[in-house]
Every structure is written in structure tokens, then in C-alpha cells.
């Protein structure tokens, strides 16, 4: 079979290695449903070897002065920026996301986080604290890295997720073995090669490929000190459970069903644009999507009419085309999952289908086999509908009307998830009051989705544990060591004084 991209192997100890499993899998271009590349699967013994390489690299990397680590990470960020479009093209082929997104967001926001943590450690950010307890007694607490860490990525922001995990991990002085999702594995080796080119010592960042069983082997390995996982709640629960039994640190970035509340005084254009960004960006495959859109009953018709006027601006087409802003879903299995939710919404939940639905958008011949879906809006939804309660992870908006703000807040919080939330209003006092009551770790006012490097992000409730990014994000990759120093010369003694 002809593959348009070369075979991918494993990357550890500073170079590419053939896997010993004898097994491969294919990564598929979701726009055309054609195979892109063959990927070798890591065996348990390959994973052991990669973890051993990371373990050998740890003592020296963790002792490397922060300013020297910073220089290497800054160089890697610069290479990522130089190669932005080339990497973005590969991400588009692998994930189906429009090049207009991958070239402006995916690589760039990953490089931003790398640069942020490099600058943070380079400017003395890894500082502890000192407390004077008595005249001659001091306590100082220093920050220490954890050791060899595992990074497990989801398929929706492949290289960005790899960078949001590896940047703070390596900046803090840890080493990492990373497993990308089997649906979007191509970025792994590219990132490892960039780190090596930037001067990262062999074994500090390693990549193994494979499906969930490879992830499970990696995350439960006794040498691994910490697991940083991005994925579904149900997988996260398994991974966190096995990590807890072995006293490993965890960061869990999981799913959501986030509420977006439009208040009666909101600017209509801003609210409609926000709801579209919160549902259709990346073809709805964003963990923080605001898929439950709460609208004042009196505003519903106006809101929906404007939404219908704007939806044609979502343009499906060849994902590399500069005009395309709406790609296919990422895989055949995910396509089937999203369609089954749409079918359920029509046939069983019996919500009103405002637009979109089960029919494939009209596509040129070369794209007809791809995993395309239309931007879909259900209205007259109720809180008990399955499409309103469960994460669909596709471009499916549910419009819910409400009568009072208190009611909207109460219904917004009535979910097991707590990833994101947002409010649209011109009344800033009301905005802060409502945001304060929403049970979510990531919130927005009059906008949706932006997540800069400085912003610590993480879910509440079942949506996760811990945060990524910002100053708080690096704490998750460090442990504390407290030392009490007695300078009085008269330490505690059992002998009579
Ligand atoms: P999955 O949970 O299916 O998979 C996530 C990763 O875990 C993949 O690399 C997967 O491998 C691997 N994996 C599967 N089983 C195990 C296991 N037992 N032990 C260790 N690793 C395992 O999630 P998706 O890839 O489908 O990603 C979509 C989900 O991610 C959505 O729910 C979304 O909300 C969430 N997400 C959350 C974000 C956040 O920051 N909160 C950001 C982005 C996405 P493989 O795929 O190869 O099977």
C-alpha cells in the first residue's frame, strides 16, 4: 500500500528505534479516509527501554542549572515557530483540523507554553520559601522534580497537548515518556527530534506509540512518578485509579458539557459569535466547548435566527485550503459516535433540529469518503435529554431556554462535569456574580475558548484533577522538600541540661 508519509518508529535515548513488537497500525487522513503512514507499536519491553532511558537521563537533567535548561527549551520553541506551517500541515493531515487553525493555534499555543516555562525557570521562578521560626531557627522549602513522568495525549490538539505536558515537565527538571493518541501519532517524533536539535540530552523526552494498552502499561510502570493524562473521564478514572494505588502524582484533563449563559442584556452579535466558537471551532472537538447554550426565553427566536444566518460561514472543504474553517471529525469511530448522538437527539430525545443533522455535507469527490458532518443545532432542549447530559465532542449545540438567571445558574451547575463555563452580558457586575456561582475551573466573560500560557486551566468535579499552564501549572511537576535549620548550637537533647 502507498503511504504519503514515512514509517514512524519509536523515539528514545535521543534517537529513533525500531519497535520490537513486529506490530504496526495505520494513521488515517480523516478528510479522505485514506491511510497516511504506518506506525510501529511499542512492546512492553520497548516501553521498559524508553522508561530506562528517561530514568538514566534524570539525574543529570535535574541537576542542570535552570538557566541552561531554559536555553534549550527556548531554542526548541524557536524551531517550532520556524517550522510552524510544515508541522501544521502534518497536524491537519493527521487530525483533519483545518490548516487555518493548526497554523495559527496548535503549534503556536504549544510553543507559547514552552517559551513561558523556559522564561519562568530562567528568571528564577523555581523558588521555594524561607521562614524564620525563631531567632536561630529557619525553615526553608525547596522545589524538587519528581523523576520520570508519563504524558498521555488525546487526539484533538495533538502537538499542543504534547507541549502543554512536556514544557512544564522538562522545565521543572523531570524527564518524560510520552504516548500520543493512536489516532494522531505523527507529531510525537517531530517534537522529539526538535527537542534533540535544540540540545535536549538523550533520554529526557521519549515517545512510544500504540493504543490504550501501551498507555496503561506506561502509566502503571513502577518507575513512573507522575502521570499527566488528557482524555475521556472514563479512561481518566482508570488511569487515576491505577496511579493512586502506586502513589503516583496525577494531572487529569478530562471531558466536559459546559454551560454558556446568555443574559438578557447581552450583545446579540457577540453572544451568537461566542456560541458558534464554543460549538463549532475544531468541528466541536474541544474539551471546553460550551455545548449547553442557555438563552432567555424572550430572546430565543432572535438568537436562533441570527445563528442560522451565520452558520453558512462555517466552510467545509479541503482542510489545507485557506478558505476552509470546518474540517471533518477525527476518525471513523468518532464520526459514528457523533452521528449516533445526533440520531438519538432526533429520534429518542426528540429535540427540535434547527440545522445540520445526519446528512453529510456536499463535498468534492476526493473528500466524499471522509468523516464529514454538518454543524448541528438542536433547540427546545431539556436538561434530561441525553444529548444535553453527555459529552458528544462534535459540532452539536443544544439550545435551552430559561426564565430567570438564578434558574439558569442552577441548571448550568446540575452536571457531573465542571470543566468550563461562560457568560455573555453587558453588565459586568452581573457577569462576575454569575461566573462566581458557576462550578467550573475555566470560565470566560463575553468570549469563549482563548487559553493563553499564563492562564492555569483545569476541571472541577469529574472534569479533572489539577491544572495545566500558568504559574500553578508547574507546581504539578514538583515536590517540596522542607528543611529546618537550627543555628543556635543547642539542639534538642535527651541528656540532662
Ligand atoms: P481517550 O480517553 O479515549 O484517550 C486518551 C488517551 O489515553 C489516548 O492516548 C488513549 O490511547 C489513551 N488510553 C486509552 N486507554 C488507556 C488506559 N487504560 N491507560 C492509559 N492510557 C489509555 O480520549 P480521546 O483520545 O477520545 O480524547 C477525547 C477526550 O479528551 C474528550 O473527552 C475531551 O473532552 C478530552 N480532552 C480534555 C482536555 C482537557 O484539557 N480537559 C483537552 C482535550 C481533550 P489511544 O487513543 O491510542 O487508544
From TrEMBL:
This protein's UniProt keywords: Metal-binding, NAD, Oxidoreductase
Active site annotation, chain numbering: 253
Family per record: Belongs to the aldehyde dehydrogenase family.
Descriptive protein name: aldehyde dehydrogenase (NAD(+))
A Pfam family: Aldedh
Origin species: Penicillium desertorum
Catalysed transformations (reactions): an aldehyde + NAD(+) + H2O = a carboxylate + NADH + 2 H(+)
Residue intervals of the Aldehyde dehydrogenase domain: 20-482
GO molecular function: aldehyde dehydrogenase (NAD+) activity; metal ion binding
Entry's EC annotation: 1.2.1.3
Membrane spanning stretches: none
